[in-house]
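Run log, item B.
One chain of 473 residues. Sequence copied directly from the ordering sheet:
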Amino acid sequence: MISSNPETWTLRSLSKALRKREVSPVEITQAYLQRIETFDGKINSFITVLPQTALKAARSAEKELLKGRSLGPLHGIPFAVKDLFFTRGIRTTCGSKILKDFVPAYNATVVERLQAAGATLLGKLNMHEFAYGTTSLNPHFGSVRNPWDRNRVSGGSSGGSAAAVASAFVPLTLGTDTGGSVRIPSALCGTSGLKPTFGRISKHGVYPLCWTMDHPGPMTRCVADLAIAMNVLAGADPLDPSTSSVSVPDYTRGLSDGLKGVRIGVPDTYYFDRLDPEVATAVQRALQVGKRLGATVKKISIPLLPEASIAAFIILLAEAAATLEKWHRTRAKDLGDDVRSRLNLGAAVMAAQYLKAQAVRRKIRENFCRALEKVDVIVTPQLPITAPKLDQGGVSWGKQTEAVPSALTRFTRIYNLVGIPSLSIPCGFSAAGLPIGLQIAGGPFDERTVLRVGSAYEESTPWKDRRPFLEGE
């Protein structure tokens, strides 16, 4: 029998309970809505909650399931989306006062697919303004706070998406990842998040930031739930020409195949520089778990990693400046200070710099492809630090100080540049009780292997079962 406590619920457990009629879609939706009402005032993960719409959809799902008309494992299960996914008739703010009254006339493709699978839209999630930041400190709708320590950031730009999952407000959320914006908040909030291969999930109806590096992706409590979501989300979309026609596998198959014979590569440079000692220890322990489970772990060389990070930054600056040029030109005073500052930088990027960055991109893709001929996945720390404080500007490395946004994207944005799948899962906690993230990347369109490795590690460790304490529980 399924527990009555939403903290213990996953997509998989809810789906099984619905099939056995141990719980109804209405009961599930009511439980999550009650939890949001009770606790989200402390976290601020939602911009818009949709109780009436959600309960109406839940009642409809309940009627269909009682008639034996199941649409699949997500039928009757709530989800929420970052507030830059278009939702027909529901405001989509992109976390900005500029679009506070914008109501799209159509749904994003991913929203359509989830609703066609019977999932129930619970609401729209808070975020860094226009997805252009790493902290989800939002001057217009209030900052998202980390459920593990409300004096710390949740990460960004999909901060509300991770915080809502970690707080057990909803079992599935969608975020977008341009320089790490699914994986950064997943790591800081102790949840699972997947940046798929570029072109694996449609961007139609997703407000753009950087069109060659934007990746929509799911965020859940565990890897198995990511696989369930990917079975619905992945696939070509005629409305998005950047999507790929590569066939979509069943992502839930092979999750329990273990790690015997899997080749894990660990970069010999870059990813272990300027690293919190607690993070380094947790990642080394995770690699030992991999060996114990039958994987081989070997050092690999990937040239041009520092140059790739710079190239990703230049491309982001230039493309974001082009995407948000209208608001920068006409509504600059209505933008948050940090977003306006980044747009000023982007406006100064020269064509020659952008083209040179694209040349580096081609070279680094080749370097990753060569590395992935020798190994099945690449494992690194997800971030060099745990969650910084809300007012923290920098991170000290001896006599050097690194800005928080730079620290949070240093290990993530290269994978946006090359477009290969990358997974974030918890691999431990700091002495202060803050989650530590592990990054697992694989070859193009090989999300199945990435998820398999993540699932094997997750099932052999206790981290996915730890929950933040919300005052009043």
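Observations after the first pass:
- The chain has one domain: 6-465.
- Residues 285 and 427 are 8 Å apart (CA to CA).
Flagged for discussion on Thursday.
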